[in-house]
Structure formats: structure tokens, C-alpha cells
Specification:
The chain is mostly helical. The chain is globular, with a radius of gyration of 29 Å.
Length: about 725
């Protein structure tokens, strides 16, 4: 009966994904001061300043021209973006008679078919500089390969939906028609701050035809306005840092100088101690029955997530200088280790389900679970809350202020999302309420994980009876019900089978909103985890003996399943891919297949059938990374957007260069995760455990998996 209930509830959740809210940013939550942009416009003063520069100050004129308009370099490899010189433009500040000329940086969108009389600063130099050649360049006169233009359009269209989902507004596929009109240039213009872009382009750049131009955005110095969220963030983090300093001082005084017995030191007074919390983080005491290999699985999965996001974020940010090279690489067989990257999140879903059973079975009976259901939920939510709230608060304010750049708009969009929809993220309902405007675009995982955790007692109540027949009926019945519902849902909706599919760019947003972040379609790995967790519980403290042929066969099955899952990302990335039946099969069965393969890997490691693989995964090296993995997941993506919002020129995509970027992103994520752990997460963990009292007790077990905030709150 529980399987039917689970089927109905998850199916209803899937049906709820029928629409989403359009983001509306209240004025007091805006990133930029729009009144500032409007107040500086003065058409009469603009004409006066432009005229003065053209007649009396050619050096100042050259500063504007040098910091702005250019033909995009690498157009033949798909680049349609030129970012000018952002900081040079905003530094312009020159006193002239009657006024001060200051720079304003703008981005404009121009169709490829627009008639430019000039796209280069060298063409607009004054006549008194006769010795400098003035090549006349008109993009409409370029003999461009039509196939390259079509591929460029395909690339920008393919990543458009994924970019929008992550907060990047794509404009390069907005003009329909022939390939030559399907490309939109995104060009920087440095203009006097008193001018509108259209007036300045006509006056400074000698562009006669401006009807096709469209303003994207403008930036001015110090245009990020202060809002309530900024003050709240600085006050809260300031208090936390002060508490860390005081608590650490007290801890060192008692522990190092007075050498008091740890039992005599007040636990709450040292809860914020960086000294004690660091020792707890890096110290590990072996516990019999602990699933040591999970640390390695988490660490490798986390590295794969960050690696995949490094590639995806650079591509989705659309600041690459060679998009056609990116498209060629994405569709090659050598890219499957990245294009298959989204499957690694299902590893965490499987681990989450596994730990729910493994840490609960034997600790609670069915009746105790029902009586303490509020603690079951509250313990999970409270352990996830502090770090999540801290990262949201960082995004609301501090990350928006640590840097700047010509492409900072994508950071500002994500900041605005957090200022408007922070509440849905903390409630873990953002995948249904506002899937296209999530605060923390990757937080959909947490929402689904929490929703699966909320539904899990429908199965756990039967598993904890101690009756194996009931337990297996509940587990298998729930898995079959969810698989049947998800498969039916997928075949009805005919989704594409990946976040970026070059052959179906128009379907990306629909796939992301209605499949990718849907609990129904992503819940099967969690149920596989419940089954694997129950298997491990039944054999806790025992040595499972498998015939060598059986263990070898299971390894072959797991390797084949994992190989097919990874390889399936190759054919769907081809420009000619068009097989809806295969898409539906991939969407329905690939994720549980991957979870089964990982489940066997863990089972084999625990019971001695993994050889050197278990040795590698169980190394103490992975302990710290495993404990930091939850916060690393939360913070790494926002940090990537900050880094990718800073470049002042388009970035040339190269696999080796991106791998070096991954090392930088990974190292930065580890450092910031450690700081958040010491300042926020670990102190809150101590306080929560103190006031909750640890929840319901159980009789001393023979062996148990240690309950750590870093191991049981999610798959992390």
C-alpha cells in the first residue's frame, strides 16, 4: 500500500510542474542604481562634449574610441562578442570648459545585416592624422562561409536555454531568417555618461544607421546600490567572525595555556572556536562498520561535478572567443567525460538514499520513527540550513561586491534571484515554484533530496519493522511504482535527453524546467540507494561470500552499465541526432542504471570484492574533502560565476586551459568551504546538537556508521 501512496504523491508532484513564476525585482532589491543612469543623461551637454572632443581634444576622443567599438575577433570561428576595455572606459574623467567628461560602458546588440560605416576606432580618427591608414570595413561585404554562420547560430541556440537557466541572458539567436541575419553582434561602446548610446554612436562612431541597434546594458562607476540585504549580510558575518575570534581565544586560553581537561570547558563557549573546529574537521577516529569507501566516492563525485561545471559554466557564460571550436569539441567522442558529467549528481541521490536506511535501520523501529517523525525531518532540515543560508547571504551581497567586469550582468542576475527567491530555496521548493529563476541555480539538487527524504518514511516504516518480506515488498514496490510513473511521464512529454542538445536547442528550457529539476524523474537513484542501504544493513558486521564467477559477473554488469550510461552522451550530442524513442529510454533508465552500478561498487568495497579500488576510495586523504563536500557543492558554482564575470576580453576555449581553471575553481572552493565550515557550519552543528539532544536513542549497536553532519544530511 505504501508503494501506491508514494506513486500517487510523486506523480502529483510531477504534475505540479505546469508553470513557473516570472521574476519581478522590486526596486529596493535591484543590483544597479537605475536612477543614476537616468539622472546623468543630458542630450544638450552630450552634444557639447562630443563636439568639444572632435574639435579641441582628440586625445580624449581617442580614449573613448580605444576603449570601445571593435569588429569581434575570431568571427570566422563563431565569435560575435567584443568587450572593449571596461576599466579603461570607466576611468575616463577629464575636466573641460563648462563640464567634466566621464566614461560610461555600454553593450549594444547589432544584427549582422546592419550597415556599419565603421567598426574600428582607427577608422574614426580625425583627419589631421593623415599618416594612419583607414581601412573601410563593412561586415556586409565580408565573404563568410554560410555553413560557419549556421553552425554559429546552432551553438548559440544550443546553449541559450542552459545559459538562461543559469542566469545568463542570450541574445545571439534572437533574429530569425537566413543564416546571415541569424547572428547578433554583442559590441562594447565607451561613451560619455551624459549621452544615450544611440546619440553617442552616431556622434562618436559615425554610424548613420542605428535603427537595428539595441541597448543591452550600461555601467557607471559605483553603480551598485546598497540595499537592506547588504547590511544584513555584513552584520551577520561580522558577528560570526567576532564570535570566532572570541571563542578561539577562550579555547586556546583554556586548552593550551591552562591545559584544562576538555570535559571542564564549556562546549557552547568553544562552539565557534576555529582551533577546535579545525581539529574536528581533520581528525578521524576509525569506527567499526563505517562505510569507509563512501568518502572516496563523495570526493571523486564532487571533483567531477566541479570539473563539469567548469566546462559548462565557461561555455554557458558565452564569453568564449571560438564557439565553433567548442561545438566541434562538444560533439566529439573525446568530450564524453564532460558531456556525461550531469550523471554524477545521481551518485549523490543514491548515497543519500543509502544513508537514510543504513543510519536509521537498527536505530529506530517503525513506531519510534512515527512518534519521532518531527525530529526525523527537523534534524535533517536544521543540519542543512546554516550552510545554505550562509551561501545565499553571500550571494545576496558580498559576492556581488568582491569584483566587477564588463560581463558582471550574469552575476547581478543571480544576485537578484537570491534577493527575490531566497525563501523558496530555504523551503526547498524552488524546483516547482521558480525553476527558471532559482537562487543558486544548482540548488535544485537540495530541493529534490529534501523532498525524497520527506517521502522516505512511506518506505522506511515498513523497512524498520524487522520483517524482511515486508521490507523488500516496500522497497521493490516503491522503485517499480516510481519507475513506471517516470517512464510514463517521459514518454508522454517527449523530452530531449540532455541539458545541451545541439539538434534541439528550442527544447532546452522545457527539459530543464519539467524534467531536469523534477522529483519524479530524478527520484529513482534515491530509491536504488534505499535498496543498497538495506542490503548493507542486513549484512552489517558480516562477511558476504560470493563465488568468484558471480562477483566477476556483477563487476562486468556494473562496468557495462556505467560505460553505456557515459557513452549515451555521445550520440545525443551530434547535430544530426533525431531519435525520440532513444531520448525517452535514456531519460527513463540511464539514471537508475548508473545508481545500480555505483551501488554495486560500494557493496563490493564493503565486503572485500573491490581490491585496489576499495583501498583508493578508503584512503584517509578523502576524509576532509568528504566532510567539506556539501558546502563545496553549495559555494563552487557561485564562485565560478564571479570568476567568469571578471574577464575583460573573450576567453579562447582550450581543454588544457579549462583543466587549469578547474584546479583553480576546486582549490578556491576548498578554501571558501573551510572558512564557511569554521565560521558558520560547525558552530551551528554544535548548537543544534546541544539543544536537540541528539534525538531518540537506541540500544548500543554492534557496529554503526558514524553520524556526522557532513555525512548524513544529504548524499554529501
Amino acid at each position: 500500500m505504501n508503494s501506491v501512496y508514494l506513486f500517487i504523491i510523486i506523480s502529483l508532484c510531477g504534475n505540479l510542474v505546469s508553470g513557473y513564476l516570472e521574476i519581478t525585482v522590486p526596486e529596493h532589491k535591484d543590483i544597479f542604481d537605475w536612477d543614476l543612469y537616468e539622472s546623468v543623461i543630458d542630450d544638450e551637454l552630450c552634444e557639447e562634449q562630443i563636439g568639444y572632443m572632435q574639435q579641441n581634444d582628440t586625445q580624449l576622443l581617442i580614449e573613448f574610441l580605444d576603449a570601445g567599438y571593435r569588429t569581434p575577433r575570431g568571427f570566422m570561428t563563431g565569435n560575435v562578442l567584443d568587450l572593449g576595455n571596461y576599466f579603461q572606459c570607466l576611468r575616463i574623467n577629464r575636466q573641460i570648459p563648462n563640464s567634466v567628461v566621464e566614461g560610461k560602458f555600454c553593450m549594444v546588440n547589432a544584427p549582422f545585416s546592419l550597415d556599419f560605416s565603421s567598426l574600428s576606432a582607427i577608422q574614426t580618427l580625425p583627419d589631421e592624422w593623415p599618416d594612419i591608414p583607414r581601412p573601410k570595413l563593412n561586415p556586409r561585404n565580408l565573404k563568410v562561409n554560410e555553413d560557419n554562420l549556421k553552425l554559429s547560430r546552432n551553438f548559440h541556440s544550443a546553449v541559450a536555454g542552459f545559459s538562461t537557466f543559469n542566469g545568463v541572458v542570450n541574445r545571439n539567436n534572437r533574429i530569425a531568417g537566413a543564416p546571415t541575419t541569424a547572428v547578433t553582434f554583442r559590441l562594447a561602446a565607451c561613451i560619455p555618461k551624459t549621452c544615450t548610446p544611440r546619440t553617442a554612436l552616431e556622434g562618436l562612431y559615425d554610424i548613420v544607421e542605428t535603427d537595428g541597434l539595441e541597448l543591452d546594458y550600461c555601467r557607471l562607476p559605483n553603480d551598485k546600490q546598497w540595499v537592506a540585504g547588504d547590511y544584513v549580510a555584513f552584520v551577520i558575518f561580522g558577528i560570526c567572525i567576532l564570535l570566532v575570534v572570541l571563542s578561539t581565544g577562550y579555547d586556546i586560553h583554556c586548552s593550551v595555556y591552562q591545559q584544562k581537561d576538555p570535559k571542564e570547558i564549556n562546549k557552547l563557549l568553544i562552539s565557534f572556536s576555529a582551533y577546535t573546529n579545525t581539529r574536528r574537521l581533520v581528525t578521524y577516529t576509525p569506527v567499526p562498520g563505517a562505510l569507509e569507501c563512501l568518502d572516496g566516492v563523495r570526493a571523486f563525485a564532487m571533483m567531477w561535478v566541479i570539473l563539469g561545471h567548469t566546462f559548462a559554466n565557461q561555455i554557458a557564460s558565452q564569453i568564449v572567443a571560438n564557439p565553433l571550436d567548442v561545438l566541434n569539441w562538444m560533439t566529439s567522442l573525446g568530450a564524453i567525460w564532460i558531456t556525461a558529467g550531469p550523471i554524477t549528481v545521481d551518485t549523490f541521490f543514491m548515497l543519500s538514499g543509502l544513508l537514510v536506511v543504513y543510519t536509521t535501520a537498527g536505530k529506530l523501529t517503525s513506531m519510534k520513527l512515527l512518534k519521532n517523525l518531527h525530529l526525523f525531518y527537523l534534524n535533517r532540515l536544521l543540519r542543512m540550513f546554516p550552510a545554505l543560508a550562509a551561501v545565499i547571504l553571500l550571494h545576496v551581497s558580498i559576492l556581488n561586491r568582491v569584483a566587477d567586469g564588463p560581463y558582471w550582468g550574469m552575476v547581478s542576475v543571480l544576485t537578484q534571484r537570491c534577493r527575490v527567491y531566497w525563501w523558496s530555496t530555504l523551503l526547498h521548493i524552488q524546483n516547482y515554484v521558480n525553476p527558471s529563476h532559482m537562487c543558486l541555480a544548482h540548488s535544485w539538487y537540495l530541493a529534490i533530496d529534501v523532498q525524497c527524504h520527506i517521502l522516505s518514511p512511506l518506505v522506511l516504516v515498513w523497512v524498520l519493522t524487522g520483517k524482511r518480506r515486508l521490507a523488500w515488498s516496500a522497497l521493490i514496490g516503491a522503485f517499480v511504482a516510481v519507475m513506471a510513473a517516470a517512464t510514463t511521464y517521459n514518454f508522454i512529454n517527449d523530452f530531449q535527453s540532455g541539458p545541451i542538445i545541439p539538434s534541439r536547442p528550442q527544447d532546452t528550457m522545457r527539459y530543464l524546467d519539467y524534467y531536469y529539476v523534477n522529483t519524479l524523474t530524478r527520484g529513482s537513484p534515491f530509491l536504488v540507494g534505499l535498496i543498497v542501504g538495506y542490503l548493507l544493513h542486513l549484512n552489517r558486521g558480516k562477511k558476504v561470500k560470493l563465488h568468484i564467477f558471480l562477483s566477476s559477473f556483477l563487476w562486468i554488469v556494473a562496468i557495462v552499465l556505467a560505460g553505456l550510461v557515459i557513452y549515451s552522451s555521445y550520440p545525443i550530442m551530434q547535430l544530426t541526432w533525431d531519435n525520440q524513442l532513444a531520448d525517452n529510454m535514456i531519460n527513463s533508465f540511464v539514471r537508475p542504471a548508473w545508481a545500480i552500478a555505483v551501488g554495486w561498487l560500494i557493496f563490493a568495497c564493503v565486503h572485500g570484492y573491490a581490491g585496489p579500488i576499495n583501498w583508493i576510495l578508503s584512503l584517509p586523504t578523502w576524509k576532509v574533502l568528504s566532510r567539506l563536500s556539501y558546502i563545496m557543492y553549495l559555494i563552487h558554482y557561485p564562485l565560478m560565476f564571479v570568476v567568469n564575470g571578471m574577464p575583460i576580453v573573450p576567453i579562447y576555449f582550450d581543454v588544457k586551459f579549462t583543466l587549469f581553471q578547474f584546479l583553480a575553481h576546486f582549490s578556491l572552493a576548498v578554501i571558501v568551504s573551510y572558512i564557511i565550515t569554521i565560521v558558520v557550519d560547525a558552530p551551528c552543528s554544535v548548537i543544534i546538537k546541544h539543544f536537540m539532544g541528539g534525538g531518540p536513542k537506541r540500544s548500543p549497536p554492534k557496529t554503526e556508521q558514524p553520524e556526522s553532519i557532513h555525512e548524513t544530511r544529504t548524499g554529501f
